[in-house]
Specification:
Glutaredoxin; five-stranded mixed sheet; 9 strands; two-stranded antiparallel sheet; alpha/beta
Amino acid sequence: MERLVGRPAPHFDMPSTKNLETLSERVRLEDYRGKWLVLFFYPADFTFVCPTEILAMNDRIQEFRDLNAEVLGVSVDNVYCHRAWIKTPREQGGLGELQFPLASDMTKEVARAYGVLVEEEGVALRGLFIIDPEGIVRYAVIHDMNVGRNVDETLRVLEALQTGGLCPANWKPGQKTLTPA
């Protein structure tokens, strides 16, 4: 697989839940120019680990926005399935209201372009990409389907990238960056 980090993010143009009622608003990479984008892929709607990640991101959305970042979730499910999952109450296995859209990659072209598609199963691994305001991929991590991501780590990496400096291992926001000798 060709590396993505340090290169322009692969283009995307997908149906989304931006307008939950009409499902008529698409999401495109260009929509996020001038902002950081946390783009994450998950295997499927109405599953076990996926809602824990989506809800964890949703619970911290203001922290992302305070860092000039938007969040976009993507799976290969269609937007009607996304809407049904969002409209299903949490206590019944749904998501409830979300503060960011879910996009539909039914063609699987976007998951393939980002290197997260499991071809033989037709689903995406848990891939997370941080794209800078100029559209360059600055961070990529891919997990197995059984392991959820850590929102604290995503926020930490986003803040580290935004320093523009050299951040040592275990760097935390507020700490100094390294100065080359």
